[in-house]
Specification:
It is a single chain. Strand 11 and strand 12 form a beta hairpin. The chain is mainly beta. It has two helices and 29 strands. The radius of gyration is 20 Å and the shape is globular. The strands form seven sheets. Strands 1-26-25-24-23 form a five-stranded mixed β-sheet, with no helix packed on it. It has a four-stranded antiparallel β-sheet with strand order 2-29-28-27.
Amino acid sequence: MKQRFLSVCCWIMVIGCVLVRTDVVGAADQVLSGHAGSTTGLAWHPGGESLACGCFDKTIGVWDVKTGKRQRILSGHTSYVYCVAWNRDGTRLASASYDRTVRVWDVETGRQIHKLTGHSAPVLGVVWSPDGSKVASGSLDKTVRVWDVSNGGNFGVLKGHTHYVISVDWSPDGKRLASGGFDNTIKLWDPHTGAETQTLKGHAGAIEMVSWSRDGTRLASGGRDLTAIVWAMPAGKQVRVLKGHKRRIESVAWRQDGLQLATGSQDGTVKVWEVATAKTLHTLTGHTKPVRGVAWSPDGKFLASGSDDHLIKLWDMFHRDQGQE
């Protein structure tokens, strides 16, 4: 009887370990190293074969995700590179930096096409318009700027935030621009007229990141109040509040099907949430310092994370969802 009891206990322990392992994971499936500073903004090439990373070593790295080798280093910024974004066909990359500039690059040649100047403070957010004709940027000067990529001209300055603007994102239909600020608000803009159309309030702290779902029906935001909020659009109604991080959320990213949301935090973890239930599906714990950026691959199978530990980690989320960690 005693032996049978011990056997049952052992099986319970094994099952418990398996259950924990499917939720909390320490080892990434691939690690990209080589940057000499924090790896912050991450952006997958639209084709999924490469990953761009803005870094505090003042460079942008473009990595081949299959080989784990850095294909190209884009140099020119004179301070931290905080955010990067691909245009829709993957031929151009935009970058935002503490040097107060936005730059546009031809990735194939490594040539800088435009140096966009006008912000009076560091630029932390950058995004392309869906048609690839414009770039929007958010800055610590409290403004959002919209730029003409064909000639580097400035279409307009969007004013309304009362504190730093950290993140910007363009709606998939091109009709709305979202910005998150240190004034604890999200503002929606008409990018064609520059008019402020809506203000979303709900966070109890500064907003670090805003991100549209691929179908444009929802907007996600992450902030210093340790929460991520999912908003139904265009109504601007809160539909989910995601809680679980121990320190502020630095980044949020939608999986392409809109069913899952990833969040990266100052607590050093990445969490993957089931949006419909607000349940944490996975907690990825491999980084040793705060996580600055997260990004899903275009096919939704891999998640990339960047951190103050200078590393980029790639996580095979397809097999994790299948219980094959």
